[in-house]
Amino acid sequence: MRKPKIVLLGAGYAGMMTTKRLMQQLSIEEAEIILVNKHNYHYQTTWLHEVAAGTIDQNQSRIMISDVIDPLRVTLVEETVEKINPDQKKVTLQNGELDYDYLVVGLGFEKATFGIPGMAEHALSIQSFDKSRYIREHIEYQFSRYRNGEKDKEGLLTFVVGGSGFTGIEFVGELAEKLPQLCKEYDVDLSEVRIVNIEAAPTILPGFDEALVTYARRSLEDRGVEFKIGTMIKECTKDSVIVGDDNEEIKAETIVWTGGVQANAVLGESGFELTKGKVNVDGTLRAPGYEDVFILGDCAWVMNQETGRPYPPTAQIAIQEADICAENIKALMKDEPLKEFVFDNKGTVASLGGRHAMGTIFDGKKLYGLSAKMMKHVIDDRYLFMLGGPRLVLKKGKFRPF
Amino acid sequence: MRKPKIVLLGAGYAGMMTTKRLMQQLSIEEAEIILVNKHNYHYQTTWLHEVAAGTIDQNQSRIMISDVIDPLRVTLVEETVEKINPDQKKVTLQNGELDYDYLVVGLGFEKATFGIPGMAEHALSIQSFDKSRYIREHIEYQFSRYRNGEKDKEGLLTFVVGGSGFTGIEFVGELAEKLPQLCKEYDVDLSEVRIVNIEAAPTILPGFDEALVTYARRSLEDRGVEFKIGTMIKECTKDSVIVGDDNEEIKAETIVWTGGVQANAVLGESGFELTKGKVNVDGTLRAPGYEDVFILGDCAWVMNQETGRPYPPTAQIAIQEADICAENIKALMKDEPLKEFVFDNKGTVASLGGRHAMGTIFDGKKLYGLSAKMMKHVIDDRYLFMLGGPRLVLKKGKFRPF
Fold first, then answer.
1. Which residues pair with A71 in a beta bridge?
2. Is residue B46 included in any domain, yes or no?
3. Which stretches of chain B sit within 8 Å of chain A by CB?
4. What is the ipTM of this complex?
5. Any domain includes A164
């Protein structure tokens, strides 16, 4: 009898943790496991704002897949997914094709620019490891250009962040820490530098408790961040943004867009039925009509039965989905009943740069400042522990004893 | 009786060492000493190729002037010199004016592009601390652009160095060390990267012993450097150079010109008589016709009486000139006879990146490889010792016990 073939697309939080769980729960005789990913490394998407600001060493945020996934158990295929053919149980890759018995789709998100003119062309995005370190380099390059005699150019040291959601605010926090350091390194007066955060919604961090929002805003304003809230970005050019009802032009050579994400376009191109760009999965995390296709993470529209609204696209949810997905694949193989996904909210902490942070944990308890920051590190390290045990925590963790 | 006022223009090797010697040899009652410099720091011009390649920490190459020059003894004026009026004994600064009794001009060099079209606009140069760290940033930026999806652009990772003189070859050597590191950091295959060194003269390192030249070239070629010797650069564009009799176009987004330097333009604009852009000083290092104006370093045309040719513009010569200049100013003040400058050649060592180097010492003995590299460090540290004693060697030296 042929071994069933499990193919996982994407080594993000969902794909990596599902692979890990399958490796733990299935023996080598029970299934063939294939992980398809563009690179031979996994990166921590929730740390990319730090890579982009240059506040952590870039390599701390990425993990070689072979460090946590046994290559004798799982075949890594370094490839780009072009299309899924769920009716034929095949995946088209840039340079090949794969068939599968069970498919796990964890292809993550893309930048969504809502048709704002110039945004797709001119704005940077904290979207992948490569794009994030490009932002880091771009920021330093601006400082060196300033010192290289281009200082009269307006906007050279103005950094605009579009969007005040989780990523936008976390990135602004890192900039507020990093830019004064760059000023020192490049002999630039801090007053030459502007950080402007622009958000169309009436508040930053929608969905967060009001006290936390107020704390975050004050913390960032204290460090020089300018907010333009309730302000639409109308257009983005090579060296400026046009904002608000009066079409104010802000000269800026660095515009980072964090204002919108959408699921990977492969889903739509593969013919899956979409809800706001995502696949509206059933309670067992399978695509409607396909018993053998699981859709996880930012590609999945998962309803919260309690609130009647979908869960937000977070790492925490993706990781929890991975557990259920692995168990359900095993159940399918053994013809056992499948489990329903239930989210266990462990809280959310937003880093605001340096020793600053805020958030809620478990029962909704609020945390501020250093204790929130410590909790953020605990959350980060917990994931590393699940993925690669104590060795990975020591190697890539935020608290490291040596 | 009014104290004589000694004004020194430029805190390069010549200006710094003269200031240091004057401070040591004259008491606070004997003279007022004023040092004029664009920045509050001195930098090691002979280390700038390392700053530009990113092979040393940029700050190791610069020294705060206040760390080695006592601010109670010497007044530092952070200003840009616009013109010298030797007949009125005045110096015009960007924002002011200074008069002097004795003047020391050590304003260094500028890029000379010999009218090659596009060179002044598009080529970078290893000319100052700021321009050198801009090159460092620019190089890293190219790698991040490549990883950010621009990889199909030709010339993105081609690094052209114009000129195979001392600086050009030393810089090429550093690139040969640094670029493989950047490839590793940015997940780029080394075969994507080109280093091309272009020289119009029939050989690299003119003036060096043939065996040393052969060694240097082989060492660099072994590490992947391409040489185009006896090849003129005809034109330089935003993203290419046109070279040779057949007008070959080499696509390159990084062009660093080391092929020519000339003395600071202030000299000509101040009415000094020039020989190839420099002031042909007498044996006591004074400008013809002005008893109280000393011209040192790259601004001075100093004849080697033995060979009948001028000395090359090196740090070693500038530092030795400083000693004579300080003594001669003291002699002038005391109405004593002045000394003639005699160059004591201690040899020359060229670094070729990493553990590679070659050169001659003292009696013309040739050194290769690691022993040459060690000697290079000794030379570098010796200057630091003269300038700031053992404390400065520990702080900024190349050999550091801790």
1. none
2. no
3. 39, 58, 130-131, 133-134, 136-138, 140-141, 143-145, 147-149, 185-187
4. 0.79
5. yes
